[in-house]
Structure formats: structure tokens, C-alpha cells
Design a protein that fits this description.
Strand content: 5-15%
CATH class: Mainly Alpha
Number of strands: 2
Largest sheet: 2 strands, antiparallel
Number of domains: 1
Length: 177
Amino acid sequence: MSARSWCRGRLLALVDAVAPPEAVEAHCDIPCGIYDPHEAQIAALTVLRMDQLIAEAPAPAVDAKAEERAAFASKVARYTLVKEQHAERVKHEVRVIWGDYVTPELAQKHPQLGELTVKILKQASKGRQGTGVADAQELVKLVQEFAEVFWQTKGAKTRRQPSLQKSGGELVVPVPA
């Protein structure tokens, strides 16, 4: 290793120590051309399932032992954490498709994509804030509509198939030509 390379490396290490670089995430930003709303659909179904589990969780009796109350609180906290993570995953997946895949021409040809994107982002936020099953069902519905329009942009027909998940619901999938 040359003295110049060594000095450059030490200088960069010093800069990183003083002002650490921020971590960044991206689908790929190449752009790779590989986009699919499937993950957003699975995440939306997960939000729905967590809200179902919260609604089904039997609250401890008034005279319940501290361990029972703690177990209930822990269970609901875990469901809530997973629900919030997956609501954020919905938002991430939809934002990536909107920001990286949708061109101005596609947006003009499919004007409902912009409106659906905004509705999904707002509904996912609403899903994070509450535990209403109806809100989660609305999120699933919007993500399904988004998936249908997405596949239209690629010239594919779609069909809905049972998700086979505990939450129930359907997945929008492209139909091979």
C-alpha cells in the first residue's frame, strides 16, 4: 500500500469518525426494472391479521393475576409492533413503485395511480394509529387496486386468488399471457 493510499484511508476514517455517513436504503436505484406490488399486499394482509388478533385477544379479568395482565399487555404490544412495521412496509413498497417505476407518461396514462398512492399512504398511517379491522381491510382493498393498476401498466391482466393466509383476503396476481 502506498503512503498516499494509506493517508487517504486514514483521512476518510477520520472524517467518518467526526461526521458518520448516514445509512441509506433503496430498492436498487439502478434502475433495475424489477418492481412488484406483492410485498405491499402481504404487508397489508399482515396489518389486517394483527388487528384481528388484537380484537380477538381476551382481556384479562378485573381480578386477574399480574402475570396474566402482563402476558396480555405483552401480546398486544407484539401485535402492535408487527402491525406498525408492516404498515410502514406497505408505505415503503408503494413509494418505491411510485417514485422509481412510475414515469410521467405512465402517471398520465393511469391517473388513478397517483390518487391510489396518496390514499394508501394515508390509510397505512391510519392503520398504524389504530387497531380497527375495518381500517386494515380498507388498506388491503386499496393495495389490491394499486396492484391491479400496476399490472395494467405492464400490459398484464390480473386475477384475484385466495391469499391462503390466516387473515383471509385475496392477492392480485398477473395472469400469464
